[in-house]
Amino acid sequence: MSLATTTNYMVPTGREEPWRFTPLNRLAGLHETSVELHDRISLEPSDIPAGVVITVEDAEAFPPLSTTDDHIVRRVRDGVSKVLLVSIEKNAEIALPIFLIRTMVDMTPEISRVQVNAGINSHATIVIENIGEGVLAEEIEFNLAPGANLRFVTLQEWSARAVHVARHHAIIGKDATFTSYVVSIGGSVVRISPTVEYTGPGSSAELFGLYFATDGQHLEHRVHVEHGVPGARSRVNYKGALNGNSAHTVWIGDVFIKAAAQGTDTYELNRNLLLSHGARADSVPNLEIETGDIVGAGHASTTGRFDDEQLFYLMSRGIPSEQARRLVIRGFFSDIVSKLKIEAIEERIMNRIDSELSVVKI
Amino acid sequence: MSTLEIKGLHVSVITEEGAKEILRGVDLTINSGETHAIMGPNGSGKSTLAYSIAGHPKYTITSGSVTLDGVDVLEMTVDERAKAGLFLAMQYPVEVPGVSVSNFLRTAVTAIRGEAPKVRTWVGEVKEAMTALSMDPAFSERNVNEGFSGGEKKRHEILQMELLKPKIAILDETDSGLDVDALRIVSEGVNRVKENQDLGIMLITHYTRILRYIKPDFVHVFAGGRIVEEGGPELATKLEENGYAEYATA
Ligand SMILES: Nc1ncnc2c1ncn2[C@@H]1O[C@H](COP(=O)(O)OP(=O)(O)OP(=O)(O)O)[C@@H](O)[C@H]1O
Ligand SMILES: [Mg+2]
Question: How far are the Cα atoms of A90, A263, A266, B174 from residue A147, in angstroms, in the given order?
Fold first, then answer.
C-alpha cells in the first residue's frame, strides 16, 4: 500500500456543472486534496477462463489511454502505482463471464485503476461486483480492438455507508461492440460516469443502467458518448426507481456528434419511477449535433409515479398487493435485466429489487 | 349456488369540485346460472358499478351493501374479492409492461387456487384455453395487454375468466371492439364457463348482437346511476329500437 500524492487540480466546490448534483460533503473526502487516498487493488478474480490473462502491472508502464477532466479520476491516475490489467486474447471466444469481485471492509478511501484490453475479434463478458463497506474512487478503461465484442456488467451492491466514484471509459475500435450494464442499488453515494469514444466505423455501444435508490441514497450516472468518427452507433437505456425520503438519483446523458461523425446513429432513454413522495429524480438528456449527415439521433426522458391501474388490474385477478407491486416493478426493469443473459445475476438483481420494495409505501 | 346481492348502492368519485355521486341506489341480485344484461346510455354509471364491485380505489361507497353468499364484499381487498369468486372483464384492460402473459396467468391462478398449478398440466391447460379463443399461443410470451389490439385484449380477459373459474363474472362491454367472428368465439367462451361453472353473469353492453349468443335471463335499463326498468330479453330489442330517451333523467 502506498500513499497517493496530492494534486493541484481545482477542487470542486459543487458550483461546477459536473458537480452540481453531487453531495460533496458525503464523498468522504475523495475530492479533497487533504485526504489521503490509499492505493490498493482489491479486485479478486474468480476462475479465470482460458484466453484471459489478468496481471498487476506498474502504472507507468500502462498509462491511461484517454483524457479526462474529472478531478477525482485525475487523483486516481496520479495516486496509483499499480494497475490491474485484463487482457483478452485476439479471437478468443469466452462463453463464461470473467468475474472480478471487490469486497471492501472499511471506510479508508481507496483508489483503483483497471485496464481491459479486448483483442481483435474476441468475445467476452466481464462482471465486476462491488460489495461491502468502503470508500472508492476508480477508473476502468476498456480498449476494444477491431471486431471485439465486450460485455461489461457491474453491480454496485454496496452496504449502506459506501461511497463510490467511478469512470468507466470505453474506446471502441472499428466494427467492435461494447455493451455495459451498470446496476447500482447499494451505497450511500454512488457516482458513475460511463463514457465512450470511438476510433473506427461500424463501432457500437449499448449502455444499459438500472438503479434503485431508497431512503437518503444518492445514485448518480453520468453517461457521455462522444461520436468523433463516422458510422458509429450508440444506444443508452437507463431505468431507475426511487423509494423513500430523500432518495435522489441523477442521470445525465451527454451525446456529442462531432462534425466528422457522419452516419451516426444514436438514441438515449432514461425512465424513472417514483414510488414515494420525498424522492427526487433528476434527468438531463443532452444531445449536441455538429453534422446534419446522420442516420438518427434522439432522446427521451420520463419520470412518473407508480401506476395504480396496473396494481388494480393484477389484484383484481387475485394477486395480493405486495406481489402485484413486485410484478410491476420487476416488469419495469425487465427489458434491461433480461438482456443480461446471466441467469444467476438476473435473479439476484430481481431479488434485490424485491427487497428494496419491501419498504415501499405507495 | 352463489348469490351476488347489491342493495341500495351509492357511489361517489372525488373530483376537483368535491365528491360527485355517480351511483344513486343500485339494487340487483345475481344468482349462479343467471345472465343479467345491463344496458344504458354512456356515462350512466355502468362501469362505475362494475369497478365498485371489484373494489377500484377511485370509487367511494357512500351507502348500501354488496354481498357474495351473504359475505360483505365491500370489506374485502381487491384480491380477496377475486379469491371469493368475483371476476371483472374490464372495458379497458390495463397494459402491464414487462410482465409476460404466462407469468401473469400462472401468478393469478396460483393466487386464486391457493396452490401453484401442476407444471405438467398447466401448459396444456393454457394452450387449450387459448386455442378455444382462437388466440395464438405466442401471446403467452408477450407482455400483459401491451400492444394488444382492442379485440385481443377482450379475448385475453375471457381467457383469464376461463382459467380463474369465478362464481360471478361482470363483463363490461366485452363485446365492444370485437369483429363478428371474435364476438362468436368470445361468446362461446363465456357460455362454456357458464355451463361448466354455473357462472352468474352481469353483462354490460350497448348492443343486442351479443345477446343473440349469450342469452340473458333479465335485462336491466341503467340510467342516471340506477336501474330504471327491468324485463326479459324483449326489453333489449325495444331499447335498440327506441333508445334511452324515455329514461332521460334530470
Ligand atoms: N373523476 C371524475 N370526475 C368527474 N366525473 C367522473 C369522474 N370519474 C367518472 N366520472 C363520471 O362518472 C360517470 C359514469 O361513468 P361510467 O364510466 O361509469 O359510465 P358508463 O355507463 O360505463 O359509460 P360508457 O357506456 O360510456 O362506458 C360519467 O359521467 C363520468 O364522466
Ligand atoms: Mg363503461
Answer: 10, 19, 20, 54
